[in-house]
């Protein structure tokens, strides 16, 4: 019901005739064939059409900014997965993702090849990084940023060999970003831990001076299937971010600056990348951002200095349970990691019960 009501609000705000025209085409196809064609052009069927139309419109409205892996590839004219402008933008190509979960729990989290993550269809959380002059994001496996040095490898992603985790790596301008995603159980509910670390590359010669660096945890109105509207984005004093009343991210350590934007306002990425004025400094605290179009966006920014052996590292919990934020102040990435692996080992040693949806009697 929430998805339908969200789409209804968007239709009132952004060119309703676009969605109506799409629905008219679907009705015409039904009349021509006597039924809707068997071939499913859009994953999920006709119910995905409004999201595809909305996604196309949003891509026209917003200035260039990072998007999840599949969308960014479909927007790249040099990529074989490029999707030309069609008036709608379904996610048809590069639908890669890794699903993370734990036995005994139905909830699943996803991580795409560029490190974007979430639960369900969105919204998503991603990580950006930079120094005092640049802003970078992960482009995806085998890809390199526009300002990567010749000795820096392309982005890469790998799954944990003996752990339930996904690690994503990127190198830009002498800085290295490593993201590690792994599932955890908090208050009996599966959530996704995201540990991000920025470190300085090994420089030849004398000990280099400290280098300014920053990490940004960004909440974006996007997901695996395109735009995932956020009409009301808020942050509590305890560091819990909520999208339309649902917890989307909890921080374990207060950031140094917050950035939020609604439709018609400068996107946080544009500010960080130096493509728009930085604006006034907003210290961490309560946030209440409302957007009638569903394009509320937020960033919690952490600043520091890095040198070889001394990285800047932070931990957040994606899709946490309600009310969990205050307890995270006393949580470290290492303690969550050790706990998650201990839970996994315990499950493996105890064995698992096998149940089938049908024909269970065969095993009894």
Entry keywords:
single chain; 364 residues; alpha+beta; nine-stranded antiparallel sheet; five-stranded antiparallel sheet; 21% helix; 30% strand; globular
Q: Layout of SSEs?
A:
Blueprint: H1 2-13, H2 16-33, H3 49-61, H4 69-75, E1 98-100, E2 109-111, E3 117-119, E4 124-130, E5 135-137, E6 156-159, E7 166-172, E8 175-186, E9 189-200, E10 211-220, E11 222-223, E12 226-227, E13 232-235, E14 240-243, E15 246-251, E16 257-261, H5 268-272, E17 287-290, E18 297-306, E19 312-318, H6 325-328, H7 333-350
Antiparallel strand pairs: 1-2, 2-3, 4-5, 4-10, 6-7, 7-8, 8-9, 9-19, 10-18, 11-12, 13-14, 13-17, 14-15, 15-19, 16-18
Question: What can be said about the biggest beta sheet?
Answer: 9 strands, antiparallel
Tell me, what's the shape?
globular
* Rg over alpha carbons: 22 Å
Count of separate DSSP helical elements: 7
The helix/strand class is alpha+beta
> Approximately what portion of the residues adopt beta-strand conformation?
25-35%
How far is it from the N-terminal to the C-terminal residue, by CA?
Answer: 40 Å
- Enumerate the spans where pLDDT stays under 50 for 5 or more consecutive residues: none
**What is the averaged pLDDT score?**
79
The total of beta strands comes to 19
- Helix % is 10-25%
Strand order of the largest sheet: 6-7-8-9-19-15-14-13-17
Could you walk me through the main structural features you see in this protein, from its secondary elements to its overall organization?
With 364 residues, this protein is α+β, with helices and mostly antiparallel strands. The chain is built from seven helices and 19 strands. The chain has helices at residues 2-13, 16-33, 49-61, 69-75, 268-272, 325-328, 333-350; strands at 98-100, 109-111, 117-119, 124-130, 135-137, 156-159, 166-172, 175-186, 189-200, 211-220, 222-223, 226-227, 232-235, 240-243, 246-251, 257-261, 287-290, 297-306, 312-318.
């Amino acid at each position: 019901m929430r998805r339908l009501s969200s789409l209804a609000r968007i239709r009132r705000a952004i060119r309703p005739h676009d969605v109506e025209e799409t629905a008219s085409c679907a009705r015409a196809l039904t009349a021509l064939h006597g039924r809707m064609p068997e071939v499913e052009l859009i994953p999920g069927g006709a119910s995905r059409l409004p999201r595809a139309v909305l996604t196309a419109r949003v891509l026209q409205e917003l200035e260039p900014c990072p998007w999840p892996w599949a969308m960014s590839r479909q927007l790249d004219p040099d990529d074989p997965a490029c999707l030309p402008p069609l008036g709608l933008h379904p996610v048809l190509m590069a639908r890669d993702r890794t699903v993370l979960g734990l036995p005994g729990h139905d909830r699943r989290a996803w991580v795409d090849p560029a490190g974007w993550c979430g639960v369900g269809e969105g919204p998503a959380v991603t990580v950006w990084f930079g120094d005092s002059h640049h802003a970078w994001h992960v482009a995806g496996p085998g890809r390199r940023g526009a300002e990567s040095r010749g000795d820096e490898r392309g982005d890469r992603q790998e799954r944990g060999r003996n752990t339930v985790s996904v690690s994503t790596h990127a190198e830009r301008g002498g800085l290295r970003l490593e993201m590690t995603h792994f599932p955890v159980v908090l208050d009996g509910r599966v959530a996704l831990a995201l540990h991000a670390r920025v470190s300085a590359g090994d420089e030849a010669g004398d000990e280099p001076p400290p280098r300014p660096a920053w990490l940004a945890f960004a909440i974006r109105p996007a997901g695996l299937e395109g735009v995932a509207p956020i009409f009301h984005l808020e942050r509590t004093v305890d560091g819990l971010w909520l999208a339309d009343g649902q917890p989307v991210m909890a921080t374990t350590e207060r950031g140094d600056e917050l950035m939020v934007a609604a439709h018609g306002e400068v996107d946080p990425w544009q500010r960080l990348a130096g493509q728009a004025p930085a604006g006034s400094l907003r210290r961490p605290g309560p946030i209440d951002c409302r957007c009638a179009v569903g394009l509320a966006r937020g960033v919690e920014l952490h600043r520091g200095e890095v040198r070889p052996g001394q990285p800047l590292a932070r931990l957040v919990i994606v899709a946490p349970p309600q009310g969990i934020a205050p307890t995270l102040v006393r949580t470290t990435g290492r303690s969550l990691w050790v706990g998650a692996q201990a839970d996994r080992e315990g499950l493996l040693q105890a064995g698992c019960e096998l149940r089938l949806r049908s024909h269970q009697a065969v095993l009894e």
